Amino acid sequence: MSEFVKIVEVGPRDGLQNEKQPLTIEQRFNFISDLINAGLKSIEVGSCVSAKWVPQMAHSDALFKLLPQHPELNLSLLTPNLKGFEAAQAVGCKEVAVFTAASESFTRKNINCSIDESLERFAEIFQAAKTHNVRVRGYVSCMVDCPYEGAIAPKQVVHVVKRLYDMGCYEISLGETIGTATPDRVQKVWQACLAELDSNVLAGHFHNTYGMAIANIYQSLQQGIRIFDSSLAGLGGCPYAKGASGNVATEDLYYLLSHIGFETGIHLEKLMQASQNINQVLSRKNLSSYANTYLQQHCA
Prior knowledge:
Layout: E1 6-9, H1 11-15, H2 25-37, E2 42-47, H3 60-66, E3 74-78, H4 82-90, E4 95-101, H5 104-111, H6 115-131, E5 135-141, E6 145-146, E7 150-151, H7 154-167, E8 171-176, H8 183-194, E9 202-206, H9 213-222, E10 227-230, H10 250-259, H11 268-282, H12 289-298
Parallel strand pairs: 1-2, 1-10, 2-3, 3-4, 4-5, 5-8, 8-9, 9-10
Antiparallel strand pairs: 6-7
């Protein structure tokens, strides 16, 4: 039996929050429904933040409430503060996410505080999550490079990851935020992290700015990582990292995993239909190399 790799689909949150034109709740609902239909089980639905600052994520809690709540589905919401957590908890969300970075400069530019201050802000979320039996996933940006500081030492990444784990994160996703990493550097970060934590609590979140995402994921697989974030059609980017392109495309990640012997639970034809649908809604180019080739061959 083939080994399973968990794919966390972040398109509905990390992808759509960087689109200039916000989608309606109905359009976002249809997008997520397509993803579920394609076999994706772990999906980041949206973010409980102020619509004033991130209009693309407005009413994410209301959207969550509309979605099916099957035991096999793991639908989550990003909650940067206690108010966001309370909104998520009110609609029955059983997994929330918090985010910080391994770079002091990036954290200050992103959420206007230091790394330590960001972690302190999460303390009340962790306490509330424990009370309500809600799982907390952590995000750590800048696992290799920072757009403001340059290279980040692996030991600094480990320090932040370990802090999040000790606070109560069941899973921690390391973000290669600006896409400048190469497999040799990614290997060093994983080796440092795996000296402190088991692989089953670590996930990779790679951007494809320089076309290195799949190569870096392959290296991560060699290190024993079996959880990866991805975004359908390569949606997303990073507003705090100039020039950073989208997340690795779910379609490209599927192609890699399925062709080297891993199971994903994804239905290919339904995934490609979902890919085609969201690009039509957004009137944008599909950033997935595999999806473009597949659709040319099968829709000609």
